[in-house]
Amino acid sequence: MKFFVDTAEINAIKEFAATSLLDGVTTNPTLIMKSGGTHEDVIAEICQLVGARPVSAEVISTDIEPMFNEGKQLAGIASNVVVKVPLTWNGLRVCENLSREGIPVNVTLCFNANQALLAAKAGAAYISPFIGRLDDIGLDGIDLISDIREIYDNYGFTTQLLAASVRSPHHVTQCALAGADVATVPPSVLRKLCDHPLTDIGLASFLADAARARPA
What we know:
By secondary structure, this protein is an alpha/beta fold. It has helices at residues 10-17, 29-35, 39-50, 64-75, 89-100, 113-121, 131-136, 141-155, 169-178, 187-192, 197-213, and strands at residues 2-6, 24-26, 55-58, 81-86, 105-110, 126-129, 160-163, 182-185. An 8-stranded parallel barrel has the order 1-2-3-4-5-6-7-8, surrounded by 6 helices. Helix 4 crosses helix 5, helix 6 (113-121) runs parallel beside helix 8 (141-155) and helix 8 (141-155) runs parallel beside helix 9 (169-178). The protein is globular.
C-alpha cells in the first residue's frame, strides 16, 4: 500500500520527502489555508519538494466550466499535480473531461460505493472515501473500503482506492487488509506507524546490556 501525507505543512513534507517511504501528498483548501500561503504558491512548492510523486490539489469552484478551467490551471503548475474534484454530478463531468485530456483526477468526498462506481466510470485516477467521517456518524468506514475494492476488482477498474480521513495507525492496518491502494494520513499518524511500546522497551534493554558489556 502506498502512503500519501495529508498536509500542506512544508516542513512536514520535507521530512517525509527525504525518505523513500512517502509516495505522494494530498492537500485541500482547508490545509492550504492553515499553511498561510496562496493556493498556487503552496502547491508549486510542494510539487518541487516531492519530485515526481503525485500531489493532489483541489478545485474550489462548483460549476462545470469554472471547475474545469481551475483544474486546468492547477494541472499547469507542475506535471505531478493531480486535480481533486468533489463527488457531485458536476465534479464527475469535470473528471471525465480532464481525464480525456490526460490530466489525472482524484475524486474526493466519497461516502458510498455507488459514488465510487460512478467516479471509476468517469475515469478517475483516484477515489477518496472518507472513512473517519463515516465512523463519526456510526458507520464503518472500512466496510466501504472493502465494498469499493470488490466492485473495482469485479469490473477491472484501474482507479486507485485512496483511503482518506484516516485517524489512527489502526485505521491504516485495516485499510491495508481491506485492499486500499493508498492511505493518505496526517503527519502525526504517519509518524506513529513506526511506534510500539515493546520496541521501545526492547531497545532500552539492548542498549543497557550493551553498556554493561563495554569494558570499564
